[in-house]
Amino acid sequence: MSDHPPYVAVRHGADRATLPHRVEADGAVWQAVRAWPAKRPGGRLPVELRSGGRVRGAYAAAGEGVRVLPAGEDPALPGLAATVARGTLVSHRPGRRAVVRTDDGYAKVVRPGRTGGVVDAHRRGAFFRTGFGVAGIRGGDEHVVTYAALPGRDLASLGATCADAEWRTLWAAWAEAWPAVLARRPADGEDWPRHTAEDEGQILRTWARHAAAVEGDRDVDGRALATAADRIGETLAALPARAAVPAHRDLHDQQILWHPEHGLSLIDLDTTALADPALDLGNLAAHVDFAVRQERWPAPRGAIALAAISRAADALHVDSARLEAWRLAARFRIACVHRYRPRWRALADAELALLTDFPQERIPA
Q: Mind telling me which InterPro entries this protein's record contains (predicted)?
């Protein structure tokens, strides 16, 4: 029996596992929004496609072009079809997970046996409830975890649409809430995993390999990427020791919601851990930088966000050298990730060129 999943036939002439901007399937044109690294060298790249409000999973593989999965299906996610039948698919990483919006909340579909880790991470994430809304878990089984809906819109979209006064208000609220939450400590007996500078360095080295393995808008030097990852990781490891604090570990503008009446909320708490207090701050700052470079946000809005992050860093006694080290690490990782997003490949390649061509102390902002 073939180990390849069933595919809907598509019209696409590529014979290499490159990422096109679009493919045709079922009489529609689908944008290739993002992809993820293959499990093994030369393997298939999982791809998320969008057309209007619809989402489809696909794979890009050498010699096969792009093959699109049947709507609402994924052989690796047995719970997906039944979940999509009662909602709308809003994101899909083929082979790993999907999110479905339902009438009363959201459902996260994962591989069989993986829901326990998701539930544990979100229980740890309840720590942030003293300053932020956190979705309650409503139920689930071995395939699916369901959550209540949270009010508000993510900062990614608000940065381009809300009024200036509201933008300043929400960032002022975040700058006050984040340090206040971290002034507490987890309850005794709570089992939090630790994420160290060495762990982050390994992630950077892994993403350097991934970035070198996919075709972009310009050639990248895999050795230069590996050297940059090593250098940035060594800088993190050399920072003076700090007490670890609860961390989201993937804090960025799409993970923070704002509602004028209900305030701020956090979503996607799957990666919670104890980590350097600068990790989330640096990650958020690097995503703000990238939003401005993408021209999703005007520069003055980026400046307001960065000023709020700086105030939070001061309140947490995170000095500028520590913040910038973690910000640079996130900047490198974000650029590597965006080599897998066709719309932003050129920007990602330009970022990586800067990060590999300059000594660390002279990398342009």
A: Kinase-like_dom_sf
Predicted TM-score of the model (pTM): 0.92
Letter string b/e over residues 225-239, b meaning 16 or more CB atoms within 10 A of that residue's CB: bbebbebbbebbeee
Output the six-digit token pair for 257.
């919601």
- In the chain, CATH 2.30.30 covers 1-71
**Contacts with 149 (C-beta within 8 Å, 6 or more apart), sequence order:** 104, 105, 106, 135
Considering only CA atoms, which of 323, 233, 331 is closest in space to residue 287? 331
Q: Which residues contact 87 (CB under 8 A, 6 or more apart)?
A: 100, 101, 102, 103, 107
Instruction: Read off the pLDDT of residues 331-363 as tens digits, 9 standing for 90 and up.
Output: 999 999 999 999 999 999 999 999 997 655 555
**Pairing between strand 133-134 and 263-266?**
parallel
pLDDT reading at 13 higher than 70: no
Q: Quote the longest CA-to-CA distance of the chain.
A: 60
